[in-house]
Predict the 3D structure of the following.
Amino acid sequence: MALQDVCKWQAPNTQGPSPHLPQPGAWAVPPGCDPQTFLQIHGPRLAHGTTTLAFLFRHGVIAAADTRSSCGNYVECPTSRKIIPVHQHLLGTTSGTSADCAVWYRVLRRELRLWALREGQLPSVAGAAKLLSTMMSCYRGLDLCVATALCGWDRSGPALFYVYSDGTRLQGNIFSVGSGSPYAYGVLDRGYRYDMTPQEAYALARCAVAHATHRDAYSGGSVDLFHVRESGWEYVSRNDACVLYSELQKLPEPDKEEEEASRDHPEPASRHRDSRMPAETEIL
């Protein structure tokens, strides 16, 4: 009698689902076809969009996003979570294909946990961004779509990185990703200051996402807001985007307030004299 019969051992089913990602060249495509070309011709082309943003300021990093997940002209989920925590001091915004973003954030959590077990401490935000970009760059050209802003606080302070699925990795102070990002950038460029208070930063992030959801058809639902501090990330609020936009419309614009103030308190007219003109002489 064989040993496997005694122990009731069975060979693992290699055809079943595996928790590990396939190698870049191991995708199931028809024989003789290049995976990249096959996906470009026969892959699904569904329009999708979102609005996510993150910016760095004196008191940490702010991350905000809408909650609408769309698939073509269909709203798949109006209350999805597009800001995913990685560990206590790191989270990221997600834009692109929802399944790809969820899978790669699970992979990133696993790799960072293994790193912490080996090294005794978690890597920096820059190290986590480099690790994610290196892993995803191996699948370049295989229709992978992940665009994320990693927001965290490490030993050097707050940090913000943008990572794309083709291996792009950028460090900056302001990032907005998604179909609504041009509208969000318009608000951020006008109101961003590094020395903002937390309440001013919250108001700016809500305003930027709310205006983007009003103009972009693929963004909507609610506005999620996170704040990464030295003590860890904090879930600040979730506000309905339509209600938030209506409240913002009722607020007076800063330019109009300045114009009204200047009309109420006009500057005294000052008399200027050209230095080339001779001085006036007194007639006695």
User: Anything to note?
Assistant: Confidence is low (pLDDT under 50) at residues 279-284. Residues 47 and 73 are 8 Å apart (CA to CA). DSSP finds eight helices and twelve strands in the chain.
